Each structure stands twice: as C-alpha cells, then as structure tokens.
Amino acid sequence: MKKISFLFIAVLYIGLLQAQDNSGLNLSINHIALSIKDVDRSAEFYKTVLLMPEITNRTKIEGIRWVALADGRELHLISILKEPVTINKAVHLGLTTNDFNAVLNRLTDLNIPYSDWPGKPNTLTNRADGIKQLYFQDPDGYWIEVNSVNDAVSSVEQIKNEVWQLEENYWNYVKANDLKSYLTLWDENFIGYPSTNIIGNKAHITDWIADMYKNNTGMTFNYELTRKAENVFGDIVMVFYDATQIWTNDKNEVKKNTYKLTHTWRKTNKGWLIIGGMGANK
Questions:
Q1: Of 50, 110, 176, 225, whose CB has the highest number of CB atoms within 10 Å?
Q2: DSSP readout, 108-151?
Q3: pLDDT value of residue 118
C-alpha cells in the first residue's frame, strides 16, 4: 500500500511539472501602452489616483513616461503621436485588486465618477462569478475597469501561502536543531512520524543535522528553497519544491546538494500538519 501511495505521488508530481510547460510561444504581458495628449497630466493621474509608482523610461524619449503595475508589468504613457484615437468602453485597461473597497473609497474621495458596465453612475457591476467591477475614465477618456478578487480564489491562495510559510518554518527548525518545534509540524498518527522513523539510530532529521555539525568542525550550514507549486484539494495540500543544502567543510570548500521534495499537509484541529512526504536527489 505504501509503495502504491508513493507511486501515485511521483506520477502526480511529473504530471504537474508537465502541465506547467506552456505550449506555443510562451508569451506573457510585458506592458500596455496608451496614446495620450499630455504626458505629465496622465502620469500624475495614474500616480495619484491609482498609486502606481513611476519607473524609469528606458527609451529615453521625451514625451513618454512609464508607471508600474503589479507583477512586473508596466503602463507606458506616450504623447509623441498626434493621430486621433477612437475610444470606447470596449477598449479598456482591466485591473484587479484585493481591496476593492479601498479603490471605491478613493474614487469617491477624489470626486472621480464611476459606473457599472451599462453606464449607470455610482453603480457596480456584479458579474455572474461573484466578481465586482467598476468603470471610470482617465484624463484622455480611456476606460479603466477595476475588478475585485474572487473570494474562492483568494481563499486558495491564502491556504497556499499559509502552508508554504510552514514549509519555511520546517527548515528554520531543522537549521536550528529545534526538535520541539519541528515535531509540531507532523501528524503523530502518520506512519513515518519522526519519533518512530529510526534509521541508523537517528530518529529525526534534526539528529542528522546535529551529527553533521559534530563530525565537521568549523562547518557552516544552510538551505535554499525553490518554491514550485502548492496544490489544494479541500483540507489536503501537496507542496512541491527544491531544497538545496549548502555547507562549508573544514577545508573551507562550499558544498551543495539539491533535493526534489514533496510534503502532503492535512488541516486538523491542531492546524496544518504533515501526513506524508517524499524526496529524491535532483
């Protein structure tokens, strides 16, 4: 039964890695550009109303200014082209925020009119999937759409981040040889619970770390974690990542060893606990 479980995890892990390999040309959004009349007026609008920080205009061309969106994306404001631009509501900048009320209050405080998609003033659109939307215009008449975050999606992301923080705590406890804290992360009903998982007279991973210190005087020791994916299945989360073990031996040589790791966590009345895991040299 145990072999079947590990095989299932390994197959699932390979499938997830393949799913992350996008087909086609692997294109992603770099920036959005708007043709505007007054570059200073527009830059001030986006900086003041939407609190977008200005970033370096790497073209070095006069009449162009750049502001930053989230996730490394950019908005380029370009005033050097004088051809007329036809604008309607279908051509709009779509934004998402995890604090929709803050945006709504900011527009109200600044007396900037907003509407729903049909155009009813001071009204929100409630999309079929639960997303809230509002629309308003910048100084050149471009439409800006602001969306709320789907509560279900937000909840999943919150779980992923919560469990990943526990993974980071796991390695902090290992590095500190803090067995007491380390054991709080494991479900004691798990067959591989550290206190019963004795290999070579060592009962848990912190024993191995302590042994490395003892046998390597002058040694420094650390880990680097590379986050891959967290997959949420109700009260079960599977976490995939790489852990690179780094140490300097008594000859001052830096050594590294990278492992591909999987932990399976379950939500219990004691919080998220590890109920399984596997690892292999990369």
A1: 50
A2: HHTT---B-TT--BT--EE-TTS-EEEEEE-TT--EEEEEPPPH
A3: 94
